[in-house]
Amino acid sequence: MKGNWDGAIVQDPNEPMNNDADFRSLIENLPVLFYIVDVRPPFSPRYVSPAFSRFGYPLEMWTSDPDIWLKVIHPDDLDWVFEQTAASSDSGKDADYEYRIFDSNGDLVWVRDRGCLIHDQDGKLLFREGVMLDVTERKQAEQAMIESEQRYRSLFENANDIIYVHDLKGRYLSLNSAAERVFGYTRKEALSLHMSEVIAPEHLELARRMFRQKLEGSSEQTTYELDCITKGGSRVTLEINSTVLTVDGEPVAIQGIARDVTERRHAEEALKESEKRYRRIFENANDIIYTHDLDGNFTSLNHTGELVTGYTRDEAMRMTLFDIIAPESLHTAIEMTSKGLDEERPTRYEIDIVAKDGRLVPLEISTRLIMKRGLPLGVQGIGRDITERRRAEEALRASELQFRQLGEGIYHQVWTAKANGELDYVNQRTVEYFDKPYKEIIGSGWQGLIHPDDLENCLLRWNDSLTTGIYYEVEFRLKRHDGTYRWHKARANPGHNADGAITKWFGTNTDIDDQKQTEDKLNYLARHDALTGLPNRSELMTHLRGAVSRAERSTTSRFALLFLDLDRFKVINDSLGHMVGDKLLKTIAERLDVMVRPGDIVARLGGDEFVILLNRTGGREEVVRVADRIQQSIEKPFDIDGYEIFTSASIGIILSDNVRREPEEFLRDADSAMYRAKESGKARYEVFDAEMHVNSMNLLETETDLRRAVERNDFVVLFQPIVDLADGTVTEFEALIRWKHAERGLIPPDEFIGVAEETGLIVPIGRWAILQACENIAKWQKKSVRRLSVSVNLSAKQLMHPTLIDDIRNVISDTGIEPFQLKLEVTESVVMEQSDRSLRVLRELDRIGVSLATDDFGTGYSSLSYLARFPFDRLKIDRSFIDKMVIDGKSSAIVKTILTLGENLGMDVVAEGIESEEQLRRLQLFGCRLGQGFLFSEPVTADAAPKVLGKPTTQLFEGSIHSDIGINHDILELDNLQ
User: Fold this and answer.
1) How far apart (Å, rounded) are the C-alpha atoms in residues 532 and 604?
2) Are 181 and 171 spatial neighbours (Cβ–Cβ below 8 Å)?
3) Which end of the chain has the least Cβ crowding within 10 Å, N or C?
């Protein structure tokens, strides 16, 4: 038997999988897709591994249908895949390509296919075998990266502001299209320019000063304005915001954003000019502008005042109001001035004044108080000569009929009323709206048509306007001719005579019922969940506060709160899409809503969380029965877009009792009970009790103690040897942290790491542990000729923390160890939760030279693609496999497979949790090189650790058989598996 893959096992094609149980077991349990097919088209499968079931087709279909490839490969890929496969058969070379396959749902899956030819011992071609890997995520990630780059380029090019980069000598390195638009240069022309060629000469020194500030570090960022010269010679003003770009801490260029503020600069200059114009307006205004103190003495007068009155400004400054106002208008002037002082608001009225030559001049006066620090100092007034206007008033009254006709063409209900509020005119639109005779509307007014609930407020507001003369505006419901009430907004302004008295009211009524309905809908949406229509958190808390208040007033007003969280909803969302997930949430909301009584509240807090408020409920047994019915209802299958979906709910329950709680505390405690239900296995309920409260308090106490421990460094690092299983020598350790609690002694990590993760304290704790481990290794290295190393575990929070890379560099620099002497261990689940971000961090650590290990291998994703993507140097076999290895054949086979996989991938393999000599002997027989466990040593202090360096830890290695054996030859080699 022979093949083109190193180490591949070949046997009789008539019995492809029966002669090696280990091989078959491994192949059938690998996550990769293994196959054996004919060497000629249509390459009918002879065997496929169970992993092919991921495509959704019955497994037997692959070997029973000779044309299966023609049906599942994407039509655009089929011809070239067959051509390359046939060419591989003709040339004898391995095939390695990627193409698309339709799964049973019609979705496309990208696969990487690596195949080779298998010959018998005489060189006869038997069949083709190979493996497939699902590379869909990588393909999607590549496409997402291309789209992200396109979005960034679009943002850069389409920005309204100029975005630029220039080197430290002032030469431009990059510019966006906004620079071309503002300066008029093409990008090629602009990139050949020096910044001094575009900056206005008088602003060059400013630009150089800002440049020096950034380079010298006195300012990380500078913002300033300067003028530049465009290609056409025009001047533009730019607001510059720029920072230094650095590489490895050294400045290499300047990046900036420049905004064209030329128009704003012009506006500021225009404002100054406007102030000058104001002075000119004051002096040259057509109206009289004046001021006087509270005794009526004039304090200022403009030029128009001199022209109208005939008095010079100096003469006027020696006069008072009483010297110039006509006697018949004096009372009005005094009354309106007093009114302005009393009410502190502008007044408007008409008076006559006596000019120097004795002429009476009618003026319309508008005044306001001059205030300083809340106290009136005088009066500012504007007097308009209304001689011509008074002449025109008669003509205006004569044309009143024409203006009334204008009112008939307005869409609103237009009306006028006498000074007492009695209607004296409505337009035709009003008559049509109420379908009543004109005279009947005029005679009866609106009172009989206003909704009874709105009448009192309308009359109150109207009477106030009639009394005060202020603008009238109010909303109310009016009965239309068909008997329906519709919302209206009424507005009215008073009309005054020359003496300031109200002579008329001019008003409109506008139908705003449609607008009101829209406002009601918006108010509803603010209190309800947009997806399900259920009350949202805000509305729930309103009802819950009411329930708490009622329960505090009466012992019979008991209630219960049920907090529901769907189990596995994220899996449904991720696998079937958010649209299906949303439809499922809506359907669940409908089921919950029909299960409660009138008066009970079903609310959605967001995501897959629902809360049910049971008002006026009985005891625990009744509430538990409700919870049971809810779970039974939710566990029934849901038919969503052709998918039969199953889910369940974890429910937390709290019942009102004699303990006083705030509404937020009820919600919090129901949430805590729900999490207890999830932790206990999901699809169940838990009732909040005193024990949960105690646990919550204990958790809070643990967090408080842990924060103090971090401040005082109340921790110790222990070291467990990692043993060379060939001869028992020790050159490396795993660092394990313990908490030195003042009362509870040494606390293992299982009892505090979870709290540290949740609170973020794991970051400073982990940073301290890495420093302690490296400092000890550096100290021991000075007395050892062997190269020592130490392994330290990283949690998810540490791996994702933005300072991790700098922390590791600082530790290596401060302790003086070589980077490879530090080995960082992460679990598969930690890495895969944030695979893309984890990959970036791990690659950076790899570039530093730190060794990387995957911990608890075999218990998480166990994906070969995961090993191929990430730069791991070591696999650590989880202790659960080592523990069962002697009594469980499957665990033993898994250990052998991981050892072979590590050897073929060029990775060290460490067995954890070795506690018996039988486990040791079996691992030695399998070819395992490294191990750790209580058989050799418990974790020891930093003082005791150097004593085991370099020499066998026990007598277990005397006469070791490991040196006499090689790797077991019945183990499948996986050199070419990715």
Assistant:
1) 8
2) no
3) N
Residue type present at position 865: S
pLDDT at 591 over 50: yes
Question: How many CA atoms does the CB half-sphere of 657 hold within 13 Å?
Answer: 11
Burial call 743-776: b when 16+ CB within 10 Å, e when fewer: eeeebeeeebbebbbeeebbbebbbebbbbbbbb
pLDDT tier at 396, thresholds 50, 70, 90: low
Determine if residue 7 is left, alpha or beta; phi over 0 gives left, psi from -120 to 50 gives alpha, anything else beta.
Answer: left
Neighbouring C-beta atoms of residue 254, cutoff 10 Å: 22
pLDDT in tens, 814-859: 999 999 999 999 987 777 666 778 889 999 999 999 999 988 776 6
Separation of alpha carbons 673 and 654, rounded Å: 8
Angstrom distance (rounded) from CA 355 to CA 365: 16
Q: Which residues contact 270 (CB under 8 A, 6 or more apart)?
A: none
Q: How far apart are CA 489 and CA 510, in angstroms?
A: 5
C-beta separation of 922 from 888 below 8 A: no
pTM over 0.70: no
CB neighbour list of residue 210: distance below 8 Å, 6 or more residues apart:
219, 222, 224, 240, 242
* Average pLDDT across the chain, whole number: 84
Distances (CA, A) of 498 to 369, 390, 416, 424: 22, 9, 19, 21
Q: Tell me how far the alpha carbon of residue 673 is from its chain's centroid.
A: 27
* 608-629 per-position pLDDT tens digit: 999 999 998 888 899 999 999 9
Determine the distance from the C-alpha atom of residue 424 to the mean position of all C-alpha atoms in its chain, rounded to a whole number.
Answer: 61
Continuous segment of H or E residues that includes residue 431: helix 428-434
pLDDT in tens, 170-182: 898 888 888 888 8
